[in-house]
Amino acid sequence: MFDVVYLCLGAVAWTVVAFKIRDWLRDRGNTDLGLTCVMAAGIATVFLFSAPGVYRWFDRLTGVPNLAMVFLYSSLVVFATGAFVLLLRWHGGTGAEGRARARLRSRKVMAAVAAVWAAAVTGFAVGRPDAVEHPRDFSTAYTGSPGVMTFLVLYLAIFGAGLAGLGVLCPRYASRLGPSWLARGLRVLAAGCWLGLVYCACKLAGFALSWAGHEAPWLSNGVAPLSASAGAVLVLAGFALPAAGPRATAWRRLRRLHPLWKDVTAQAPEVAARRAHRPFAGLQWRADRQMAEIRDVQRGIGRYVESDTIDIARERGRAVVADERQLAAVAEAAALRRGLENRAIGLVPVLGADCVVVMAEGERPAAGPPGRSGGPGGAIAERLTAEPAAEYEHLARVADVYHSPLTDTVLTELRQRSAAQRH
C-alpha cells in the first residue's frame, strides 16, 4: 500500500518538476524559478524514496543498509538550502549591490549547511549499529545510537529552519501581490511549511519521550510521517499553482469562448483565411487568438447593425436582468448577432453603429481610446480594448447569452421592425 501511495505521489511530483523545468528553460535568467525547480525536485525525490520497495531496492543496489534514508534526508536538506537562498534573495534588496550581497550571503549559507550536513552524515556512518532495514521506523530504531541521533537532530534543525523561514515570509509577500495565482501559491506553500514543522516537532517529541523511557512510536512513525506527507503535497501544490493556475484559467476561457468563436467565425471567411496554424500552441495563446478573432469580426460589422440596437437590447433586458455586466453582455450579443444576420443578407441600415463592443460601467477604463466615445442613442461607453481578465470574462458572458431567449426576443423585434419598414 505504501509503495502505491508514495509512487503515485512521486509520479505527480516529478510531473510538476518537469513542467517547472520547462518553464525555467524558457526563462533561464529567472534565478528564483531555477531554485524552485531544485526545491521541487527535492520533494519529488523524497516521495520516491519513501516507498519501502524503492528504499530497499536502493540499499540492495548500493550494498549499504539504510543508505536510502541518507539520500532521502539529503533531498530535504537541498530543499531547505534552496529555501535559505530564496529568503536571502528576497531580503537582499534591489539593484546590483543588493544582488551581490545576496549572492555572497547565499554562498556562506550553502557552505555552512554543507559543513553541518557532512557532520550529520559522518554521525550516521559511525553510529549505524546494525544492518537491518528500517524504511518506516528509522528514527525510533536508533534512539540509543548517539551517532544516528546526531544525524537526525542536525537534519531536523536544517529542515525546520528552512520551513520556518518560508512559512513566515511567503504570506508577507503574498499580501503584497494582490489576487493572483502566485499569491495563492505562496499561501499554500506556507501552509505546507507549517505542516512540515509539525512533522519536525513530532519527531523531536518522540526522541525526548524515548530518552525519558516512554516510547511513542505512534508519534514518530505515525503522526510525523502523515503530517510530513500532507505538508509535502501542499508545498508541491504551492510550487505548481503559479504555473497550473493560469493554464486552468486559460482552459476555462477557451471552453467558454469556443461556442461563440465557432459561431462567429463560421460566418466570417476572411478571418478564417488569415488564421495562424499552430497545432501545438498553448491554451493561453489559443484563448487569446479566439478573443482576437471575435473582435476582428466585430470591428467589421458595425455598419450592418442598426444604431439603436444596443439601446433596444438594454431596454428589454432591464425588465429581467439586474446585473449591469450581464445587461452589457446581452446588448453586445444582440448587436453581434444582428450584424452577422444583416451582413449575410446584404442589409445595410441607413444609420449604422459606431461600435458593437459594449462594456459595463465597472469594466470601463478611466480614459477610453481616442475616437471611441459613447455610441448613438445614449448607449453606454464602448471600447475595443480592456484589461485582459475583464475582457475575457465579458466575452464569456456574451457567449453565455448569445443564444438566450432574451437575445432572441431582441432579434425578433428588430426583424419585425425591418420587415415593417420594407413594406
Provide an overview of this structure.
Helices cover 75% and strands 0% of the residues. It has helices at residues 2-26, 31-50, 52-62, 67-91, 95-127, 138-141, 146-177, 181-211, 217-266, 269-273, 283-300, 309-317, 324-345, 388-401, 405-422. It is built from 15 helices and no strands. 35% of the residues are buried. It is mostly helical and 423 residues long. Residues 365-386 have low confidence and may be disordered. The chain is elongated, with a radius of gyration of 31 Å.
Q: Tell me the strand percentage band.
A: under 5%
SS elements, strand count: 0
Order of helices and strands: HHHHHHHHHHHHHHH
Give the fraction of residues assigned to helices: over 70%
How many H/I helices? 15
Overall 3D shape: elongated
What can be said about the biggest beta sheet? Answer: none
What's the gyration radius in Å?
31 Å
Name the average pLDDT.
Answer: 82
Low-confidence stretches: 365-386
Distance between the termini: 79 Å
Content-based structural category = mainly alpha
Properties at a glance:
mainly alpha
Q: How are the elements arranged and paired?
A:
Elements: H1 2-26, H2 31-50, H3 52-62, H4 67-91, H5 95-127, H6 138-141, H7 146-177, H8 181-211, H9 217-266, H10 269-273, H11 283-300, H12 309-317, H13 324-345, H14 388-401, H15 405-422
Helix pairs in contact: 1-2, 1-9, 2-4, 2-9, 4-5, 4-7, 5-7, 7-8, 8-9, 9-11, 9-14, 12-13, 12-15, 13-14, 13-15
